[in-house]
Structure formats: C-alpha cells, structure tokens
Amino acid sequence: MEEQKIKAFMDEVIARNGHEPEFIQAVQEVAETVIPYIVQHDIYHGKNILLRMVEPERLISFRVAWVDDNGEIHVNRGYRIQMNSAIGPYKGGLRFHPTVNASVLKFLAFEQVFKNSLTTLPMGGGKGGSDFDPKGKSDDEIMRFCHAFMTELCRHIGPNTDVPAGDIGVGAREIGFLFGMYKKIRNEFTGVLTGKGLSWGGSLIRPEATGYGTVYFADSMLKTKGETFEGKDVVISGSGNVAQYAAEKVLQLGGKVLTLSDSGGYIHDKDGIDTEKLAFVMDLKNNKRGRISEYVEKYPNASYHAGKTPWEVACHVALPCATQNELNGEDAKLLLKNGCIAVAEGANMPSTPEAIHAFHEAKILFAPGKASNAGGVATSGLEMSQNSLRISWTREEVDERLKGIMNDIHNSCIAYGKEEDGYCNYVKGANIAGFVKVADAMLAQGVI
Ligand SMILES: NC(=O)C1=CN([C@@H]2O[C@H](COP(=O)(O)OP(=O)(O)OC[C@H]3O[C@@H](n4cnc5c(N)ncnc54)[C@H](OP(=O)(O)O)[C@@H]3O)[C@@H](O)[C@H]2O)C=CC1
Ligand SMILES: O=C(O)CCC(=O)C(=O)O
Q1: Where does residue 42 fall: left (phi above 0), alpha (psi -120 to 50 degrees), or beta otherwise?
Q2: 87 is a domain residue
Q3: Residue 152's CATH number
C-alpha cells in the first residue's frame, strides 16, 4: 500500500514537473521515506501536506541585463524560489553558475526547507541565483552583475520576508555588492543577507560553518562506532568554501586530507594536504581565482588527474563538497571496496540515488547534505539573531552554538532514522525529522 501511495504521489509530481530531473530526484528521496511515516500517523493523513510542500509558494524569474568591461550588453536569467515559509522567513543561498535553471533551484529550495527545519531555528526555505558564469569575469563585471541582479531581487526579499546568502559562485565579494545595492535602493541597513563582512553585520564563523559543521556531523557519526577522525584518511571533493573549511576541521581533528578538486579534475597528495598547503589552496581559490591543477606546480609530489573525481582514492572517510550528482553508483562501489566507512555530504545532493543505495546496503555511515551541511544555514540563522539583537557573539560562542546545533541534528536523525537492527538510516531520519516540524506548522496554519 505504501508503494502504491508513493507511486501515485510521484506520478502527480512528475506530471507537473517532469522536465525537472534534479527536482524529481530530490522529491523522490523524500517521498520514499516520508510517505510511509504519513501513512502511520493519522494527524498527517489525508491532508496532502507533502503535495503542498512540493509546490513553491512563489517562483520568481527575471531578466538581468548588465554591461561587460568592453561595453557589450549581456542578458542572464535571475531566479528566487520561495518554497515554504511555514516556520519562518524564506532562507537559502544564491547560486551563480551556468548550469542554474528552475529544476536545480527547485531541488535546492526543496531540500532547504527540510534542512532549515532540522537546524531548530525559525527559518523557512528558499533558493535563488542565475545562469551567470562568474569565471573569468573582472571584479567590476561581477559588481555590475550583482547590482543589476539586486535591482530586481530587492522587491522580493527583506529581513522578515526572505534572507538570501551565498552558494556556488556567490561568496563574500558577491554578498558585498548585493548588500550595497539593496541598501541603496531600500535606504535601510538591515540583515537582509547573511554571509556579510564582519564590519557590516556579518557573523564570525559563518565562512567556516558549512565545512566545520559537516565534519562535526561526521565526527558524531564516527563516535557511534567508537571511532574518531584521528589518523583517518579523508578524501574531499571541491576546493571552494565548503571543501576548504571541511579540510581545515579534518586537520584540526587529526585526520589526513588526501584530495581536493574542481570542475577540471582532482589533486592527490599522498603526504597529506597540511595547514600550509591548505593556506596555498585558499589563496589560489579565493584571491587568485586559479585552478586546482596549479597545486602540483607548487607541490610536485602531488598528482593531478584531469577530468576525474577523487572517489578512486582509498580512504576511511569521504566528504563530497562540490556539487550535485558528483558521486555515482560506480564511485560508491569503489569507495566501499577501498574500505570507506563513512560519507558525509558537504554539498547538496552530491550522491546519486544509486550511490546512496550502495552505502545503505553496505550499512556504512552515510549523512545526507540536508543534515550534515546544515551548519552553514544554521550559522546564517545565528547571524540573523545577532543582527536583530544588534550584538556580535565571539568566535567561541558561535562555534559552540554551531556544535550544539549539529549535535541536535544528529540526535534527530537517530530518533527518526534508527532501524530495528540498530543501523541508522540518516536519510530517513533527516527527512522525517525535517518534515514533522514544517508539517505541524502547516497544519496549525490551515490550508493556505
Ligand atoms: N556555501 C555554503 O554555505 C553552503 C554550500 N552548500 C553546498 O556546497 C557545495 C559547494 O558550495 P561552495 O563551496 O559554497 O561553492 P564554491 O563556489 O565556493 O565552490 C564550489 C566548488 O565546487 C566545484 N564545482 C562546482 N560545480 C562543479 C561541477 N559541475 N563539477 C565539479 N566540480 C564543481 C567548483 O569548481 P570550479 O571552481 O571549477 O567550478 C568549486 O571547487 C554546493 O553543493 C552548495 O550548494 C551547502 C550548504 C551551505
Ligand atoms: O546560509 C544560507 O542561508 C544558505 C545556505 C545554503 O544555501 C544551503 O544550506 O544550501
């Protein structure tokens, strides 16, 4: 009966969104775990709550016209998906990448609803961005694009309505330009964006939070098996914000980081990427905006593997921190064959359904991004609180709160995900725990 209900639900979702593969993938994963729970719990039954949750409350799409350094005019498409505001203002990042489209942003916004619910903070879910490609653009071009983007977005957001932040291609530089234009048009200095600079309303630890949080979560999972990061070989993909700070925290906890990557390929450093080498990567990526292949010019003992992903390198722990569907079923089999015992997603939906199936079948520790990478948005929530209170917490205070929230999320996953044989299905746990809070709020607020 559950199978039939899942099929009937997905048929309806596909009929309406069939041309959006990433969105369908994200919804399918939730449906498979949440519908059986709904069936067993009378209060949610017959209310079509999940069907309401898969339809964005609002989907905004707009033209972004901007002028490059040569005076040529370009047109990109901007979006903001306001997915669900049952438990708080819409909250979620902005992505600037040529692959951005409605399907990608809807999957991200949908996952964000569950993730934000898990953080224990009052944040609804949203996501936005543009198909603009920041690669190879000058700082002036980035500024003109961000300003043009915000001239439209500013109508739809606000500190109590919708609070965007960064994601792929949107970091501190872009948040600065976006904030500047919002402030100019609206003539108000408010916490309308998170990930702001420290001198203008930002929070300590926000840059580190997603990567640190992912490792805190992985550490909690390892502890359930009596293990820690000490002496573990760790394979990380990506070399952006999440990957950099995941690597930093792994080093602090005594692990050895063997790989980093970008869309060109991965580097493998058998000696380990230590603090000094990581500082080189941070400068290369954040300031020089270079390619990860340049690592082997500086450290010739390392190797570069063009067009490949790091999952072929033997490790104890894998942290996919780049992008969606970057780790497939074959990669998962390879990781398992090589002795991997834990995978924690720093990116959003980096593992394909086949990969997740393989991890579950092997009963290794597997954390879905909506649980393990929630530290970023949680610390954005802490930035919002500090903005409202007009105070700044210390680094230690924010880090302690982040650790506490990641621990709470881990406990929620265990509470809803532990199976009869003792194995914790963190996907099921995260989906149900995230669902319950939002669904209860939707029930209380009636059919709207
Ligand atoms: N920033 C945050 O706070 C949060 C981010 N996330 C998720 O973490 C992931 C990484 O985000 P973040 O680090 O902020 O982004 P960045 O833009 O800082 O870095 C992205 C990294 O991923 C690589 N990458 C992007 N697209 C691809 C691709 N198609 N194939 C291979 N590599 C790719 C980039 O390589 P290249 O430079 O070559 O494009 C880069 O190394 C995303 O899934 C994001 O949604 C989740 C929660 C919060
Ligand atoms: O901090 C935020 O609001 C955005 C974080 C985000 O986009 C994510 O969790 O995927």
Answers
A1: alpha
A2: yes
A3: 3.40.50.10860
Alpha-carbon torsion 284, 285, 288, 292, what sign? positive
Closest residue by Cα to residue 398 from 206, 171, 270? 206
For residue 163, the ligand 2 atom closest to its alpha carbon is 3
ipTM of the complex: 0.99
User: Is residue 48 domain-shared with residue 73, that is, in the same domain?
Assistant: no
* 220 and 344 share one domain: yes
The predicted model scores a pTM of 0.98
Q: Cβ(134) to ligand 1 under 6 A?
A: no
> Does residue 346 have its Cβ closer than 6 Å to ligand 1?
yes
Task: Tell me which DSSP letter residue 281 carries.
Answer: H
Ligand at shortest distance from the CA of 262: 1
Same domain assignment for residues 44 and 66: no
Q: Is the pLDDT of residue 198 over 80?
A: yes
Each residue's pLDDT tens digit, 326-365: 999 999 999 999 999 999 999 999 999 999 999 999 999 9
Please give the average per-residue pLDDT across 370-383, as a whole number.
Answer: 98
240 alpha carbon – ligand 1 mean position (Å): 6
Does residue 417 belong to any structural domain of this protein? no
